[in-house]
């Protein structure tokens, strides 16, 4: 039987709005890059310890894990927020703009951290849940393939701090503040990279017949790679193959020895992901061979697809509707960006949510981006109510 129906509401967080804003702006003004989040982690850990959580520092780097058990319930829920900033010079001109040259919170991790801290304070103060809550403050989400989530997992996250389900959240520019967007199944893409090195035979530009021109091979390959999605992937599936850089040669009268292509490959289905890798290998090798050149492919698997489990997503949808109303909860479209939260979801059921950051918000990773403080109370209340409801089931 449920212990109580008096769950967290938006109104419960209105008194904390000024404090949440102050915390968020403090974090924004003092950004730390991936693997450098020592001061941010200290700030977070000291607050959690003051509120009565059992806090473990330096999990998978600068990661902080806080746990609290109330009552005799055996269920456990985990909620994750990321803490790191980006190597971007801020151009907002705001009073709380970054104080650190070349570093800024251009993806809203300052807001994510502040919201989870807000929920943490409320849960510790009210203690209206029956079970264990695990709060994960993750470092190095922006670090690429070698990032904070797999590092925390490798450091024993699941074994040292067992939990049943896990939730995370990211702000969503373009959607109204305080609205929630969700999707069952695939949400964000797997992100792989490929570096293709074409080796030909260099020589004088006036005598191309005595060379094997890697620039020509590279140009043919770039065009042909555009057929990987259009002619190899089921039209009902979604995938992206983009060549983002070509490097070759230094002089107009020299045919170089090598050319290099740098690519990003995005997909939402494991079979499509495998198909893309296979086709890129075969096309690169066969086209190079056709010109008498050689292609070497360094293919790196990045973060897997973010796949939200059905039960946990539906539960979060219900809780969000209770909190903000059905008209402020909507289905999220597929997002071709990647997220290392996907590593957690490979091990535990859960869901990754999106929270509106304003219709006119600057895009993520922009030097003019800022997290919308109007969304802080909605995010904090969502985490608090979700915890109370899940542990009260």
Automatic annotation (TrEMBL):
Pfam families in alphabetical order = M20_dimer (PF07687), Peptidase_M20 (PF01546)
NADP recorded as keyword: no
Q: Does the keyword Nucleotide-binding apply?
A: no
- Annotated Peptidase M20 dimerisation domain residues: 193-286
List the InterPro entries.
Answer: Amidohydrolase (IPR017439), Bact_exopeptidase_dim_dom (IPR036264), Peptidase_M20 (IPR002933), Peptidase_M20_dimer (IPR011650)
**Cofactor comment text:** The Mn(2+) ion enhances activity.
Q: Where does Mn(2+) bind?
A: 107, 109, 142, 170, 365
Q: Name one GO molecular function term.
A: hydrolase activity
> Which cofactor is essential here?
Mn(2+)
Q: Which UniProt keywords apply?
A: Hydrolase, Manganese, Metal-binding
- Similarity field: Belongs to the peptidase M20 family.
Q: Sorted alphabetically, which PANTHER family does this protein's record hold?
A: METALLOPEPTIDASE, PUTATIVE (AFU_ORTHOLOGUE AFUA_6G09600)-RELATED, PEPTIDASE M20 FAMILY MEMBER
Q: What is this protein called?
A: Amidohydrolase
